[in-house]
Amino acid sequence: MRRTSWQPFALSAGLALVAVVAVVVVLSLAQKQRTAPQRCPPGLELGATRCCGEGQREVAGHCEGTPQRCAVNMTVTKDGCVAQSRRVAIPAGRFELSVADWEPNMSTGRRVVDLPAFLFDSHEVSVAAYARCVAAGACAAIDATNTEPGVPVRGASAEHASKYCAWAGGRVPTVDEWLAAAMGSDARRFPWGPTGLVCRRASFGLVAGPCAVGGSGPELTGARPDGATPDGVVDLAGNVAEWARTSTGGFVALGGSFASRLAAELKPAARPVEAPPLDHMGFRCAYSSAR
Predict the structure, then answer these.
(1) How far apart are CA 107 and CA 91, in angstroms?
(2) Which residues contact 257 (CB under 8 A, 6 or more apart)?
(3) Cis status of the peptide bond prior to 268, with omega within 30 of 0
């Protein structure tokens, strides 16, 4: 049978159509992944702005009800999921703590320090943990808006942090210790490594995007296990900003918070904040390493 002149054109047009459809499908999937990233680990469910235990519901930024299940390394309590913090060993070593970066609020220049080994809380101090210090009479109560046991205590001043850490047998970490835990000896761009900032790795942008709109506070401590350091320290980017001691005896905020929107605010190398909003502030402790 003689081939008609329009057959090659029809074949080419068909292949072009298939290619266009393939591109549209790929772009659609990419857009879906970009606008609706997986945020909650197994055992937690995504509400309007944050993660709650399975069986709970988010009401005005709070997780209410008794969870049926929580994420790995979290305990189910009648009032919510509570992560179990541990003391992570940060080995002695030489740390490069400043990374040159194009973003305007990055620290610049090369700063290398030698630090002895120390221990560092794997999680931010939770409401439940802080309440034990209050019950012991060693800490002053904090008038916080969120009383869920598993979220980080916030509204904490440097004095609150200092008294709690002393009661726990530790201290507020120095800036160098905090940065060493976050950046490691390999000067990581983010606590988890060189890869980019996404909503499944850090609790950020919960107030006005990009991870949620209308959020009013932090997530459960440990709700972003994909953002852990290689040593297993979580939430060093976002959730609540954390107090650290300067070499002159002052205190600064590091790590950004649930309201931070830009990567430049959340990288360990970002310039410390000297007067942070207290409602965004929490802390964790450092301890002398056992010999």
Answers:
(1) 24
(2) 204, 218, 238, 239, 240, 241, 276, 280, 281
(3) no
Query: Is the model's pLDDT at 20 over the cut of 70?
Result: no
In this prediction, residue 290 carries a pLDDT of 64
Q: What is the mean pLDDT of residues 12-27?
A: 45
Dihedral sign of CA atoms 41, 43, 48, 50 in order: negative
pLDDT at position 289 is 84
List the single range of 12-26, 187-201, 210-224 with lowest mean pLDDT.
12-26
Q: Mean pLDDT across the chain, nearest whole number? A: 86
6 has a pLDDT exceeding 50:
no
Q: Which two tokens stand for residue 33?
A: 């992944």
* DSSP β-bridge partners for residue 83: 74
pLDDT at 12: 53
pLDDT over threshold 80, residue 261: yes
Nearest to 258 by CA among 246, 243, 240: 240
Quote the tokens at residue 121: 């809380």
What is the Rg, in whole angstroms, of the alpha carbon atoms belonging to the chain? 23
252 touches 265 (CB < 8 A) = no
What does pTM read for this prediction? 0.84
Q: Look up residue 188 and give its amino acid.
A: R
How many whole angstroms separate alpha carbon 233 and alpha carbon 169? 19
Name residue 126's beta-bridge partners. 152
